Amino acid sequence: MNEKVVRSHCRICHGGCGVLVHVKDGKVIRIEGDPESPISHGTLCPKGIATIQLAYHPDRLLYPLKRKGAKGEGKWERISWDEAYDLLTAKINEYKRQYGAESIVLGYGTGRDNEAFIYRFANLIGTPNVLTAGHMCYGPRVATSIITCGNLPVCDYEGNPRCVMVWGNNAVVSNPDEYKGVYLSDALAKGAKLIVVDPRFTKLADRSNLWLQLRPGTDVALAMGMLQVIIEEELYDKEFVQNWVYGWKEFVARVKEYTLKRVSEITWVPEEKIREAARLFATTRPACIQWGVAIEQSINCVDNNRILIALAAITGNLDVPGGMVFYVPPPTMNASQFGAHKLLPPEQRKKRLGGDVFKLADAFAILNPRFVWDAILSEKPYPVKMVFLISTNPVITRANASMVYEALKKVDFLAVSDFFLTPTAELADLVLPTATWLEMDYVAEFWKRHGYVLARQKVIQVGECKSDHEMLNELGNRVGPKEYWWPTIHGALNAILAPSGLTFEEFAKKGYLRGQMEYRKYVQKGFSTPTGKVELYSTRMKEWGYDPLPQFREPPESPVSRPDLFKEYPYILITGMRPTAFFHSEHRQIPWLRELLPEPFVEIHPETAERERIKEGDWVIIESVRGRCLQRAKLTLGIDPRVIGAQHAWWFPEKNSPEHGWRDSNINLLTDNNPVTCDPAMGATNLRVLLCRVSSNLKKALATESTEEI
Ligand SMILES: Nc1nc2c(c(=O)[nH]1)N[C@H]1C(S)=C(S)[C@@H](COP(=O)(O)OP(=O)(O)OC[C@H]3O[C@@H](n4cnc5c(=O)[nH]c(N)nc54)[C@H](O)[C@@H]3O)O[C@H]1N2
Ligand SMILES: Nc1nc2c(c(=O)[nH]1)N[C@H]1C(S)=C(S)[C@@H](COP(=O)(O)OP(=O)(O)OC[C@H]3O[C@@H](n4cnc5c(=O)[nH]c(N)nc54)[C@H](O)[C@@H]3O)O[C@H]1N2
Ligand code: SF4
Ligand SMILES: [Mo]
Question: Is residue 434 within 8 Å of 419, Cβ to Cβ?
Fold first, then answer.
């Protein structure tokens, strides 16, 4: 018997956990946590373990497919990779010639460790249009941090924070971006104080010293209240403020506008609790803020991020052990160098869809998806003819799903790379089978800001699947310019590693590289902002014509901003809280994971349920002014009676192909993508705070529709 163990790194979510992959007779038989991993210390979540069922799933795409019947009809023909590359090359050249490279949109979703290759491909063919989730997820954090304090500050759990403030984040479930939840759990086990700012009573809220249950979308106001206390009681780090803060006077004047009384009215949080949280955070050092995506998917996105940086900065917690630090990257090429942003000609950069509207986003090559759908549907400001989606399922994950569906159905040529025929892939002209993390060599995580790169090693080959990196390198060689691509994928990996002096083989033996950490770098170098200081008054925002100071904006759809609508839609809807079992729209077909969560659920307070005559487990119609969907009622005291919490990203792979029930439980039929409801600088979509109504009277609400399938 031929058995071996390969050391690698998972990438089902944003990745990072070290794994030992057991292989027998060429097949993976077991995946276990690597106790020597500095990131995960031997822990794994169910999704990592279930990669076996993903890799060998009977419905998995194993070779390229070309559409045979009408769009979305579900008829496919198997083709070879050569034919697939020829078709892609011909289409790219044709659209470039006829409509310009900008008529081709490349697209991905959340961080999949392939973004640097996708940007490189886009920049090299000359299109400024890369569709991402970066306008409302992680991108805002990076962009705002860069203009405010030069880089993204990350909680330094190794430095033993004595207080962690978790703000709109649930890291012990979501393990997002730089973080694995295990860091936070360890810090709590070592006695760190915990403040949780969340409208729901999460597991973390249960463990906290203080839980601030705010009205969704009012985070800037709450932080202003805390700052008010910290400034009034002089709990801030005076020396840091004097030497390293730009715009203190103006900032203090702005904070003063937010009296605790006003803040408490806006946020629903009692004044005493705001005071207590402010004192605890400011007087327990070192302290850090673990903040999440909930505050980015908001009209207040940039100011939410700015104000949390301000809280960390003025309490003396920036770049100190146990505070919020700027990790030093390892000696490799960084993702933005590899992405070849400099090679996009300036005249093409100017053509980015919606370019001028959201100026902070544009400065970071990020666009708002709405502009892509508009350019397909109305051909304005110019037609988009080809969309090439690599690791995203926008019919399920983007706001205003009906518009997304219509646009992707209409576009001249749609290519999709995925593991499965998702509702998005079903609309494609060409489908490419991609590789799981078990099927690729890669220098993983060089997009993150945690100071590591990790070795991912190819363990198996499944069908004709190829990693996105390999596919883009091969296609890049055909489409050109050829001199920017490599004969094989190992050429690219060696180029990324070149500054370290290691080849991929040598790196794989080491397992990971880490940058040498140094704290308080600003003392020598200042902060990398125009003024060299932490800009509480942002000179860049001012230049672009935005308010240089943070401010609270009432969410575009709330009881306060839309009292008219509130009469008919009397609850605040929040969406998207991550469950352990699934990563967005993925894994509904993986038995071990679907068993954990067979159906979507919506969280409702028992008082609300009683008022609406909803019982535990009922199918509930959740409806906004734009659309509706169905999820099962889960009654909980952990949510305010005025708030409803729905899951996102549901579809049903097992249901009537090729639609797969994408309309049934998809909360993005209710969300809005109108640019005026987005953050004015970043274009972040407001996915979190809407008005809705709920009912379990399916017969009445769906009078004209069949509910048989439900
Ligand atoms: N209402 C609402 N909507 C939301 C959110 C919310 O909170 N509320 N959250 C938003 C956020 S933060 C994000 S980031 C987006 C995420 O949006 P998406 O990234 O579109 O989400 P996924 O469902 O993970 O889609 C990824 C697709 O790529 C495939 N895939 C996975 N790995 C690979 C790979 O390595 N290569 C290739 N080619 N394919 C792969 C999967 O099978 C899946 O079909 O969703 C957003 N949508
Ligand atoms: N298992 C799993 N893990 C994932 C993902 C997944 O789909 N599944 N998605 C990945 C992605 S792309 C991302 S971006 C991350 C996101 O990970 P997190 O940042 O942890 O995001 P969520 O779990 O959506 O939301 C965190 C908390 O925000 C709260 N919240 C909602 N509205 C508000 C508000 O207005 N203010 C405040 N303060 N809190 C609010 C919710 O109640 C929730 O408890 O997770 C990543 N990890
Ligand atoms: S948290 Fe789970 S899915 Fe994410 S890297 Fe770790 S094991 Fe993989
Ligand atoms: Mo995300």
Answer: yes
What mean pLDDT is predicted for residues 151-155? 97
Indicate yes or no: pTM above 0.85: yes
The model's pLDDT over 24-60, given as tens digits with 9 standing for 90+, comes to 999 999 999 999 999 999 999 999 999 999 999 999 9
153-325 CATH: 3.40.228.10
Ligand 2 surroundings by CB, under 6 angstroms:
13, 110, 137, 167-171, 173-176, 197-200, 202, 216-217, 219, 292-295, 574, 576-578, 580, 582-584, 688
65-138+342-514 and 153-325: identical CATH topology = no
Of 143, 525, 161, residue with least CA distance to 315: 161
Provide the residue ranges of all domains of the chain, joining segments of one domain with +: 65-138+342-514, 153-325, 563-707
Pocket of ligand 1 (CB under 6 A): 109-110, 112, 114, 133, 137, 293, 297, 390-394, 397, 417-420, 422, 434, 468, 575-576, 583-586, 648-649, 667-668, 671, 687
The DSSP code sequence of 230-241 is HHHTT-S-HHHH
Query: What is the CATH class of 65-138+342-514?
Result: alpha beta
**pLDDT band, very low/low/confident/very high, at 2 (cuts 50, 70, 90):** confident
What is the best residue among 584, 602, 665 to mutate for testing ligand 1's pocket, by most ligand atoms within 8 Å of CB? 584
CA neighbor of 469 nearest in space, from 491, 449, 452: 491
pLDDT at residue 460 is higher than 50: yes
Question: The tokens of 254 are what?
Answer: 């702005």
CATH number of 563-707: 2.40.40.20
